[in-house]
Amino acid sequence: MPRYGAGPQMSSVRSYYDRYWSDLEQDFPLPPELEGVLRANVEPGLEWLDVGCGAGRTYAQFVAPPAGRYVGVDVSATAVAQAREAGIEAEVVPDASELPFEDESFDAAICVEVLEHLFAPHDAVAEIRRVLRPGGRLIASVPNAIYWRMRLNSAMGIWNPAGDWMAVDQPWRDPHIRFFTIASLERMLERAGFSHVEAGASGGCLLDHLTTRPTDFGTSDAYRAMERRFPSLLGMTVHAVAVR
């Protein structure tokens, strides 16, 4: 579920994501394991910041209702308008590394499928840490750059940034500009000053390139067991919980 990026030509970045959210008919579903991580961190009365909120039609629908406050920010005015229509408090920001909030304003933050779009994701997570209260949590996710399908593509001489449907044919204009593994996401969050980081990967599927629907084995207990043992290889989405 792509969100937004930053760079020297912000007007073109905004235009790209305004078009993206105008054309998107529905958000991509969350991997069940990532949804579980989010639900495990939902507590009544928490104040949440959603960095790269998009249209607010997925996880916001179960995180926001029990929250004391839930605020989404996005570079796309189109996405923000859709989020507001979905009942989410949202505002446009110039960049994820320039959040219009005081220090220690939130108990928790979400940054789902955003960091891979940013020119300086390390600055964004440092800024998120700034607006979190002591003990506050950041829940983040990014695509796994060394997921088995990505490795197979590379072995076949195919570069697929996986940002949108034109990624293979025109990788040079793909919105994914930064690439992460479990270890590199952990390291970036730790260097941004988070005191404790736990990361993993999930949401993979066997033979996902051969069918429009997940295969029985791809979503079976057997695959999930193997995924837990070899997350860097079999998990498609890296997720992390980082504590300020």
Strand content: 15-25%
The major β-sheet equals:
7 strands, mixed
- Would you report the number of β strands? 7
Mean pLDDT: 89
Using only C-alpha atoms, the radius of gyration works out to 17 Å
Structural class of the secondary elements? alpha/beta
Shape: globular
Number of distinct helices: 9
Neighbour order of strands in the largest sheet: 3-2-1-4-5-7-6
Stretches with pLDDT under 50, minimum 5 residues = 1-10, 209-217
* Helix percentage: 25-40%
Give the N-to-C terminal Cα separation. Answer: 26 Å
Q: What kind of assembly state do the chains in view correspond to?
A: single chain
Series of H and E elements: HHEHEHEEHEHHEHHE
Describe the protein.
With 244 residues, this protein is an alpha/beta fold. 32% of the residues lie in helices and 20% in strands. Helix 4 (77-85) links the parallel strand 2 and strand 3. Helix 1 (10-23) runs parallel beside helix 4.
